[in-house]
């Protein structure tokens, strides 16, 4: 198998794939926020939740459903901000996977990734990481 990547490019490709996998797992798991409600442990993410309150009309009280699940529809996500977060994070994970898989294919196929394309892709990943960290840090 011929490769179009240098040793640094191969390391970058594998690290990109690991980061893409971690990001996707983090996106699909409902553990973004952890807490407690009605003396039960609860957690939720952009489009999944675990242990959530529902109104029991027969008993006229709020009870906790102790299971994980997705929201019934896109509109059932609690706020517009969470809906935007779901779309943007999902698109980001998709693009990250695309770049990572392309880089991994560059390890096996010669002439797939040029030196300039590799540098530009690495720079975009670096800037995306810096922007993402700045948002989380309140900058």
UniProtKB/TrEMBL annotation:
Source species, domain of life:
Eukaryota
User: Which positions make up the signal peptide?
Assistant: 1-21
Q: Name one GO cellular component term.
A: membrane
Alphabetically list the UniProt keywords: Membrane, Signal, Transmembrane, Transmembrane helix
Compartments reported by the entry? Membrane
| Annotated InterPro entries | LHFPL
Mode of membrane association: Multi-pass membrane protein
Q: Which Pfam families match?
A: L_HMGIC_fpl (PF10242)
- Main location, first listed in the record: membrane
Bilayer-crossing residues are: 87-109
Per its record, how is this protein called by name?
LHPL6 protein
Source organism of the structure: Poecile atricapillus
């Amino acid at each position: 198998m011929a490769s179009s990547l240098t040793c640094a490019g191969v390391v970058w490709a594998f690290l990109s794939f690991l980061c893409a996998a971690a990001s996707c797992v983090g996106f699909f798991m409902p553990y973004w926020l952890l807490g407690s409600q009605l003396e039960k442990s609860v957690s939720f993410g952009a489009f999944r939740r675990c242990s959530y309150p529902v109104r029991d009309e027969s008993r006229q009280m709020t009870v906790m459903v102790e299971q994980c699940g997705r929201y019934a529809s896109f509109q059932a996500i609690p706020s517009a901000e969470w809906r935007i977060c779901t779309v943007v994070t999902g698109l980001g994970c998709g693009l990250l996977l695309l770049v990572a898989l392309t880089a991994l294919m560059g390890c096996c196929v010669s002439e797939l990734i040029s030196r300039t394309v590799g540098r530009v892709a690495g720079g975009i990943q670096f800037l995306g990481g810096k922007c993402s960290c700045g948002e989380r840090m309140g900058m």
